[in-house]
Write a structure and sequence with these properties.
With 366 residues, the chain is of the alpha/beta class. The chain contains 15 helices and 14 strands. It has two domains: 127 residues, Alpha-Beta Complex (Aspartate Aminotransferase, domain 1); 219 residues, Type I PLP-dependent aspartate aminotransferase-like (Major domain) (Aspartate Aminotransferase, domain 2, 3-Layer(aba) Sandwich).
């Protein structure tokens, strides 16, 4: 028997639920509404005008890409996310958002990482694999009041997964300011933000804080989850040197086609038009879906007392099993918390980034 190093991490419950739904469809012959997934599915991004812009015979596409990513994509990210205010040397292209987070925690020397009480399960699993201690904060007020030790790390995701709620930007910047002045590391993971905000330079404001490390991806804002392209940004030179080394031995360069595709979407008129239309259509149906669930009395409004539900996720006051009886796939909220499982057992997380009429057709039968 082969001996195995046990990481302690768990297989994704979300993937497992997807496999269960597939089996149910095969055994019953009935279709299930897949709201357990975490990708925008209102529409696909139309790449028909973008593909002709890519030279598939170019050395740039066919050879190994630079370790930290293509310079053209660095420049596009600097323009699109940072209003040209950072240096391209601070940007590293990763194989998606989860790869970005894993590399961050491989590189960052920290005594403890603080996660939100309701959190994406991959955070805990990545930290477990990297043997980093973690704990939880219940509200942003706690971050204001708590006395952190130097070298601790706080992870902030806004909009949040699984709640899909958005807090006021000024409040978030006040939190970052306080943490940064205490020499607390901040990992800022907001892959959903650009889906909601056009011409948004919030990241430019984060450049004032040297302890902030940004992780982002193009899976949500450009609908390119299949390309597995993301990026990390840091202002700290020592972190960047070690991160670049870790990036080399984990990826040896990231998918050149995906990088070129993203760069075209960010910089060309055709790409910007396709990206804008994708985001606009997605937002319209998500707004309709949230309003519909609210009017039906299903939106768990207790989670949105001081924030706004915007998606791509929403919490409803029905359990995973109750929804499954109506052929609706979801993920029980208890999967997304360590400290509040009893409370969370009454709720489910839905990915409401699906066509409005499709969602409505299932919930109308309830």
């Amino acid at each position: 028997m082969i001996q195995v190093n046990q990481s302690g991490a768990k297989y994704s419950a979300i993937v497992g639920i997807g496999e269960k739904l597939k089996q149910l469809e095969q055994s019953t012959g009935q279709k299930y509404l897949r709201l357990n997934r975490g990708i925008p599915s209102v529409c696909t991004i139309d790449l028909s005008e973008i593909i002709p812009l890519i030279d598939f015979n170019s050395a740039e596409l066919q050879n190994y890409p630079p370790n930290s990513g293509l310079n053209t994509l660095h420049q596009a990210i600097n323009a699109h996310y940072f209003n040209h205010k950072t240096k391209v040397e601070n940007i590293f292209i990763t194989a998606g958002g989860m790869n970005a987070l894993d590399l961050i925690f491989r590189t960052l020397k920290t005594t403890k990482v603080w996660l939100p009480e309701f959190f994406w399960g991959a955070y805990a699993n990545v930290l477990t694999i990297n043997k980093i201690e973690f704990a939880f904060y219940s509200t942003y007020d706690v971050l204001f009041q708590k006395e952190f030790s130097e070298g601790e790390t706080v992870l902030i995701g806004d909009p949040n997964n699984p709640l899909g709620n958005k807090y006021d930007d000024q409040l978030l910047l006040q939190i970052v300011d306080k943490l940064d002045h205490r020499n607390v590391n901040i990992v800022w993971d907001s892959p959903y933000r650009k889906l909601f905000y056009e011409n948004d330079y919030f990241y430019e404001k984060l450049l004032s804080y040297p302890h902030v490390i940004i992780a982002d991806s193009f899976s949500k804002s450009l609908g390119l989850s299949g390309q597995r392209i993301g990026f990390v940004h840091s202002l700290d030179n020592a972190f960047n040197i070690e991160f670049n080394t870790n990036l080399l031995y984990v990826t040896n360069g990231v998918n050149a086609f995906g990088q070129i595709l993203v760069e075209k979407l960010l910089t060309t008129p055709e790409g910007q038009k396709a990206a804008f239309e994708f985001r606009a259509k997605t937002r319209i149906d998500m707004i309709k879906n949230i309003e519909y669930l609210k009017n039906k009395g299903l939106l768990a409004e207790e989670f949105y007392q001081d924030s706004e539900p915007i998606g791509i996720f929403t919490v409803v006051n029905m359990s995973e099993d109750e929804l499954l009886k109506h052929h609706i796939g979801s993920v029980g909220l208890y999967y997304f918390t360590k400290n509040s499982k009893a409370l969370a057992s009454k709720y489910s997380r839905l990915c409401i980034s699906v066509p409005h009429q499709e969602l409505k057709s299932y919930f109308d039968l309830m």
